[in-house]
Design goal:
By secondary structure, this protein is α+β, with helices and mostly antiparallel strands. Helices cover 37% and strands 14% of the residues. A 4-stranded antiparallel β-sheet has the order 1-4-2-3.
Length: 190
């Protein structure tokens, strides 16, 4: 499956600024005629030499720090995930909804090292979801079998929830579930 990744491209320019994200830059059409964003898998790699830009992407490359996926919707796609990741590195907790793996990169490698980040996309199509997640599971499973762990910026699967996300979650609950959640939080946290 690693031969389906198009190419490594820089997430940031040498100056630390994001390049203009066009279809040409990405290597695929971001949005189709029906308004669906490209879905598929993506990988981020950290390479201080910059040589990775000339190499064929491989999910088993030790420089890969994250493997993710995005289904195809009219709101988001694989290119949107990179914007979330990059924004979280630059803005940290000042970003409206910080992206967990971007925060891990920020902590492990430092904001100043963002210029050494590359992305490789595996565009899988429009108006699909489950196929992309199945592909991600396959990539991560093989990666874990080879290295014994997930890439550096995966962190734990413990979700990081911002105050706004928690508020949104609580407001979406039924009265009965909200009462249970409040009781649980009081019992567990106090």
């Amino acid at each position: 499956m690693s031969d389906k990744f198009v190419r490594w491209i820089p997430i940031f320019e040498e100056s630390g600024i994001r390049p203009k994200v066009t279809d040409e830059y990405l290597g695929f059409k971001k949005v189709n005629e029906l308004g669906y964003n490209m879905g598929g898998c993506y990988m981020y790699a950290y390479d201080e030499t910059g040589n990775i830009a000339n190499e064929i992407p491989d999910h088993l490359d030790p420089r890969v720090v994250y493997i993710g996926t995005a289904g195809s919707t009219t709101h988001r796609g694989i290119h949107s995930r990179t914007a979330d990741f990059a924004g979280s590195i630059v803005n940290g907790h000042n970003q409206k909804r910080p992206y967990h793996n971007g925060m891990i990169f920020r902590d492990k490698f430092g904001i100043e090292n963002r210029k050494h980040l590359y992305v490789a996309y595996y565009p899988m199509g429009y108006d699909l979801k489950q196929e992309t997640h199945d592909a991600e599971v396959e990539l991560l499973t093989e990666r874990k079998e080879v290295f014994g762990e997930l890439p550096a910026c995966h962190g734990s699967y413990t979700p990081v929830v911002t105050r706004r996300e928690l508020k949104d979650i609580l407001l979406s609950l039924s009265k009965e579930d909200a009462e249970w959640a409040a009781e649980f939080l009081v019992d567990e946290l106090i």
